[in-house]
Specification:
The complex is a heterotrimer of chains A (224), B (570) and C (366). By secondary structure, chain A is an all-alpha fold. Chain A is 75% helix and 0% strand. The longest helix of chain A is centred in the last third of the chain and has 37 residues. The termini of chain A are far apart. By secondary structure, chain C is an alpha+beta fold. The longest helix of chain C has 34 residues. Chain C is built from ten helices and 13 strands. The chains are: A mainly alpha (224), B mainly alpha (570), C alpha+beta (366). The structure holds heme-A (2 copies), dinuclear copper ion (CUA) and copper (II) ion.
């Protein structure tokens, strides 16, 4: 798609042909991102609703099952994500100041955190697989030893895997997007000369972080 | 409706450059980001899907002519109506008006050069096409026998058909919807031409705004729900199946949380079409602009609160049922407002019975019948006997076929010259509208009686009640007429493209609106030769001048015009 | 010959509820017809009068009028609320369990109806009931969702796996009525069809005496069958006449408030009892541990229903406030037949499907 600048400023970011000027383009992008995040909220919202219903229905059982989850690893992951949220906010800040090096550094740190998160998540998943907690045919729940209904254990772990899995998928997509953004910044691509793309990525990343902020207590910290 | 800012020279009729002939390669179509071309791509897609869905309906109607069925087994019959419902809902009616007419018209109506995110728009078409291919593969290779509602645990644990594949396809198609919704919202908010304030927006745009809100709030929920059913089938996780500790009624809540608002996704844009067509062919401003605009928003908002009316006898509590029933009556009110405002729009207008207008009037009639029969179902007590019967089938065909499809066809006829620069044959146009109106009533009215008598839907055989056969045969006969009615536009509209002597003028209807007044037919690639600026209210027609033109030609005395000083414009 | 026999436009009215139902139905119909005519007339009149070129006066067009809009909003709103109120009142009445009613237990499965009377008579796809007697169906599905639908009675309710649903009605006219499954349940959904035979009270008593129809001779009563299951599964090992360390007594618990370990309470309604038997650990009775085995997978839905009836029979219902199961006249005193063949022979007297002569007469007359 052809882009053409309406302003004389050579430093100004490219404006796509459907927009009048850069302001309109930026506002539109940000509004579009927010609408997209609304759909994401509904997407996860349905899962959280399902979770709440069953948690309420099988309160005692869920307490028993949650002990399977490692709240220390989960806690580390929470910290990692919070740190990454901070660094992505910094990236937006530097983008506004047009400090390219710092911006890249901040994004790089975010990327690092994201990888760290996924690695820790992978370790956790690995343990669950070892202990036959993945809800397929190999699933085992020793009810005699731990108590709790095996079917509900299966339900709990299906919710665990589908919700953290979907979240993990979002982290993965985040990694790809941040990586691509860094590539464009490094290349001084014309669409990237202002802060809005970074801001959009930041919004998305904050959302991913926020989802985890809910997931962590709901799964790892169930009170008796 | 608006002044042209800086038209340099009248467009040269010899060049006739437009979005269709801008480039002729296949790649230029498949990689286009032009919203108009994407609309055409969608038009081809949904037309194919409509005829595939109709073919399944034809089988259904043929089977039901005999109390013991004709040629299909129970299994195949179930697959037929499922294929019919799934194709018609998810791949025809939900995308039909938004993705074809909406895509084409929204940027033009608000004076924008394109949608906010053209590449997202193209992506939505690809996702839609891929999901359609996946779903069709599932429906043809193996089929699905659960009905379009996919109730668990039938769909999750009991059905041995291609449920998973089809659900994955539907999951994907949801993203196509979401992309369109996000795109429309951003476009309507941020891309309006100078002077195009919210209350100068054409009502068509308003209805799409409401629809897009529904899409982005509802679609993700059904997408994840259907996906969980796939997980349940694959890993036997127990979210919706009681055998595994889950709750089947929870599935219904989540399903209808989307699928009730979805019926307004289907009908709101259709209503938008009617607002445009009625005003144009009555040559006057809409009656009660703000009420019509706001009733769209009201339908979208209240529409999210009534899903439980599909579940009155599903073991939800009595109180829940009563609340949903109350809200269902409230959601009927904005529709009533629309119907009466459209009717009153003809008051002191200058009514012209062109093809789109006949479709629009037929829409009003059939939608009213469909909507009013919705009241039997909204009333919790009457629904007890009617739910799960042909009364429901008749109700929703009245609103969806009689309502949404007639409006879609009306819109296609109305904007056909705009989209393709060709006029269709007016005689065939009017005839098809009337054949469809007749055939439609013939097909679906008997189904109300069948439903009241107690004929359950999704029944392949009814040998225990031979007295029902008469109505089934009547319905099947009617559907033949209806089918002929639907095939007619396919022929004469295609023919109009091939003929050479029917080039349309830029504004054959003398319609108002940026897409008619400020653009050529077909429009150029970036829609307008110059940036339109809006100064007037929408629908600023002049019925007196319009009718006097006819009277002058016929040598009749002109009817008096009001005192110019007293002229009221709102 | 009556044209409506061949071409009916309304289903028969054969229950207490049918007339009131039809009253609402036809009222809405009148309303719908009036509004349809109104809109059609309005559209046609305006379209014709103001057709292009007509001499109608077009000066001073009205583009908006809050007065008209108010009428357009309020009239449908008020009429709608009126229908809502009326229909809701009827619905609330219909969903209430009658004070005294005869219980029928319904088990839906792909693709047949399985019905069981209190006195143990079982039927498949057929149900015999006495006229003018309140009936309460307690329903559950063994697999997918079905819907019990009897058009002539204007009643329908879903039959859901995993929970009991309930539906009450009173038949008012002897005869044979369609009993359909109105929720798509798979391949043979359209053949999940049976008939309800409404009999005069005396015919019904005779039918009962004959041991029901010949396909499913009467076994024990529900309570007796429940007792058999109770003994077979040795529930009594833990549940004795009073609370012990092994388990709480179940005497008198039906519909009583139970105190649970987490401090909450629960009413021991059928759904609670079913859950307590199949998945006892979900809600533990205060003072007890998870010692009771989960019987999920070991008991059929039918056996669970029988156990519940047995538990109910051990409850002092006058204090728990639960209604006494209704027994048709004559049914209570019947001896349990020892020879099922006899029952079969006797049922033969009444025709193949257990229809009595007088009822057959009634059907022929229709
Ligand atoms: C385009 C689609 C569409 C539209 C617009 C509607 C509109 C309405 N529908 Fe419909 N409906 C469906 C599509 C649609 N429906 C489908 C597909 C199903 C079945 C799904 C399935 O199970 O497969 C269904 C099922 C359905 C049910 C569930 C029935 C059941 O399964 O038991 C109910 C119950 O309340 C209902 C109610 C309504 C109401 C109150 C409206 C209202 O919005 C109608 C409002 C319009 C009017 C009322 C007419 C105009 C007003 C006047 C002329 C003024 C007079 C008015 C008054 C006096 C109030 N519909
Ligand atoms: C937009 C939605 C839409 C549309 C347009 C239609 C159109 C039609 N439907 Fe549809 N219908 C649904 C949505 C729709 N339906 C839904 C959602 C269901 C519920 C499914 C479920 O229960 O799960 C349903 C169910 C349904 C049933 C109930 C089945 C059952 O419960 O057992 C019936 C029965 O008569 C029926 C009939 C028809 C008919 C006669 C048409 C007619 O309008 C069709 C007219 C067309 C023709 C008669 C064909 C003419 C053309 C051709 C044959 C050309 C084909 C050729 C080529 C491919 C080149 N439909
Ligand atoms: Cu059982 Cu349909
Ligand atoms: Cu609905």
């Amino acid at each position: 798609m052809a882009t053409h600048a309406h302003t004389a400023d050579p430093d100004a970011p490219a404006v796509y042909e459907q927009f009048e000027d850069i302001d309109q383009q930026q506002e539109t992008y940000i509004l579009g991102m927010w609408s997209f995040l609304v759909t994401e909220i509904m997407f996860f919202g349905a899962l959280f609703l399902i979770y709440s219903i069953y948690r309420w229905q099988y309160q005692g059982d869920f307490y028993i099952f949650h002990k399977e989850l490692d709240y220390v690893l989960g806690g580390i992951n929470t910290t990692v994500l919070l740190a990454s949220s901070f660094s992505v906010a910094l990236a937006v800040h530097y983008a506004q100041l047009k400090k390219k090096r710092q911006q890249l550094l901040a994004l790089g740190f975010t990327l690092l955190c994201a990888f760290g998160f996924l690695i820790i998540k992978a370790i956790e998943y690995g343990k669950k697989f070892e202990h036959s907690k993945f809800p397929n045919d190999t699933f085992v729940w020793d009810a005699a030893k731990y108590g709790g209904d095996p079917e509900h254990a299966r339900l709990f772990f299906s919710l665990y895997f589908s919700m953290t899995g979907l979240h993990g998928l979002h982290v993965l997509i985040g990694i790809l997007v941040i990586g691509y953004l860094m590539y464009l910044i490094a290349k001084d691509h014309p669409v990237i000369t202002d802060y809005v793309p970074t801001e959009l990525v930041g919004l998305y990343w904050h959302f991913v972080d926020l989802v985890w902020i809910f997931l962590y207590p709901l799964f790892y910290l169930i009170p008796k | 409706m608006s002044a042209i800012l800086e038209r340099t020279a009248a467009p040269d009729p010899q060049v006739k450059k437009n979005y269709l002939n801008a480039d002729h390669t296949l790649a230029s179509w498949l990689l286009t980001t032009d919203h108009k071309r994407i609309a055409v791509l969608y038009l081809i897609g949904v037309t194919v899907m409509f005829f595939l869905g109709s073919l399944a309906a034809a089988f259904v109607r043929f089977e039901l002519t005999s109390p013991r069925g004709q040629i299909l087994t129970h299994e195949t019959y179930n697959k037929m109506f499922t294929a019919h419902g799934v194709i018609m809902i998810f791949f025809f009616l939900i995308p039909a008006v938004p993705a074809v007419l909406g895509n084409f018209l929204i940027p033009m109506m608000i004076g924008a050069r394109d949608l906010a995110f053209p590449r997202l728009n193209l992506a939505s078409w690809y996702v839609w096409t891929i999901s359609a291919v996946i779903v069709l593969t599932g429906l043809i290779m193996g089929g699905v026998d659960t009905g379009w509602t996919f109730y668990t645990p039938l769909s999750s644990l009991y059905s041995n058909t291609q449920v998973s594949l089809v659900l994955v396809g539907l999951f994907l198609s949801g993203f196509s919807s979401i992309m369109t919704g996000v795109n429309f919202i951003a476009t309507i908010h941020k891309m309006r031409a100078p002077g195009m304030t919210w209350f100068k927006l054409p009502l068509y745009v308003w209805s799409h705004y409401a629809t897009s809100v529904i899409i982005i709030l509802g679609t993700p929920v059904v997408a994840i729900t259907l996906f969980l059913v796939v997980l349940e089938r694959t890993f036997r996780i127990g979210i919706f199946s009681p055998e595994l500790g889950g709750d089947p009624v929870l599935f219904q809540h989540l399903f209808w949380f989307y699928s009730h608002p979805a019926v307004y996704i289907m009908v709101l844009p259709a209503m938008g079409v009617i607002s445009e067509v009625i005003t144009c062919f009555s040559r006057r401003q809409i009656f009660g602009y703000r009420f019509v605009a706001m009733s769209s928003m009201a339908i979208a908002a209240i529409g999210f609160l009534v899903w439980g009316h599909h579940m009155y006898v599903s073991s939800q509590s009595v109180l829940q049922g009563l609340i949903f029933s109350l809200l269902s009556f409230l959601v009927a009110v904005p529709s009533a407002i629309k119907v009466f405002n459209w009717s009153l729009t003809m008051w002191r207008g200058s009514v012209q019975f062109s093809t789109p207008m006949i479709y629009a009037l037929a829409f009003i009639g059939l939608f009213v019948i469909g909507g009013l029969t919705g009241l039997y179902l909204a009333a919790i007590d009457t629904d007890v006997h009617l739910t799960g019967t042909y009364f429901i089938v008749a109700h929703f065909h009245y609103v969806m076929v009689g309502g949404a499809i007639l409006a879609f066809l009306g819109g296609i006829h109305f904007w056909w010259p705009k989209m393709f620069g060709k006029m269709y044959n007016e005689f065939w146009g009017r005839l098809s509208a009337m054949v469809i109106f007749l055939g439609f009533n013939f097909t679906f009215f008997p189904q109300f009686i069948l439903g009241y008598l107690g004929m359950p839907r999704r029944y392949h055989v009814y040998y225990f009640a031979p007295e029902w056969q008469f109505y089934h045969v009547a319905s099947s006969l009617g559907s033949t007429i209806l089918g002929i009615g639907f095939l007619m536009p396919a022929f004469y509209l295609t023919a109009s493209l091939l003929r050479k002597d029917n080039v349309a003028p830029a504004n054959p209807w003398g319609a108002k609106g940026l897409e008619w007044e400020n653009a050529s037919s077909p429009p150029v690639t970036l829609n307008f030769e110059s940036q339109p600026i809006v100064t007037e209210n929408p629908y600023n027609y002049d019925p007196i001048e319009d009718t006097n033109k006819v009277r002058r030609e016929a040598g009749l005395p002109e009817i008096p015009r009001e005192d110019p000083d007293k002229e009221v414009h709102h | 010959m009556n044209i409506f026999k061949v071409l009916p436009v309304a289903p028969e009215q054969a229950s207490e509820r049918a007339f009131g139902y039809d009253l609402i139905f036809w009222t809405i119909t009148i309303l719908a017809v009036v509004f349809t005519i109104l809109v059609f007339a309005l559209v046609l009149a305006l379209a014709v009068r103001y057709r292009r070129g007509s001499s109608a006066d077009r000066r001073y067009p009205v583009y908006h009028s809050n007065g008209i809009e108010a009428v357009l909003t309020l009239v449908p709103l008020v009429l709608g609320l009126g229908i809502f109120a009326w229909s809701s009142a009827d619905f609330v009445k219909f969903r209430q369990r009658p004070k005294e009613s005869m219980e029928i237990f319904v088990i839906g499965k792909q693709w047949m109806w399985h019905l069981q009377h209190m006195n143990g008579i079982r039927e498949n796809n057929e149900l015999h009931i006495p006229v003018d007697t309140p009936i309460t169906m307690t329903m559950i599905s063994q697999d997918v969702i079905h819907a019990m639908y009897i058009p002539a009675f204007r009643v329908q309710y879903h039959v859901v796996p995993g929970r009991y649903t309930e539906m009450s009605f009173t038949a008012t006219k002897p005869g044979r009525y369609k009993m359909l499954c109105a929720m798509h349940c798979g391949t043979q959904h359209s053949e999940m069809v049976g008939f309800v035979y409404v009999m005069s009270k005396s015919d019904y008593a005779r039918w009962i005496e004959g041991g029901g129809n010949r396909y499913e001779p009467r076994a024990a009563t529900m309570v007796a069958a429940g007792e058999q299951v109770w003994n077979r599964k040795a529930c009594g090992n833990c549940h004795a006449g009073m609370d012990t360390v092994r388990g709480p007594t179940l005497n008198g618990i039906f519909n009583a408030q139970r105190r649970l370990t987490d401090g909450s309470t629960a009413k021991a309604a059928p759904d609670y009892l079913r859950e307590s038997i199949l998945l006892p650990w979900l809600r533990l009775t205060k003072g007890y541990e998870t010692t009771m085995p989960a019987y999920k997978g070991q008991l059929t839905e039918e056996e669970v229903l029988q156990l519940i009836e047995y538990i109910k029979s051990n409850s002092n219902t006058s204090t728990s406030g639960s209604p006494q199961p209704y027994s048709a006249p004559g049914a209570r005193t019947l001896p349990t037949p020892t020879h099922p063949e006899n029952a079969t022979n006797r049922a033969n007297r009444y025709g193949s499907a257990g229809v009595t002569q007088s009822e057959e007469g009634a059907m022929n007359a229709r």
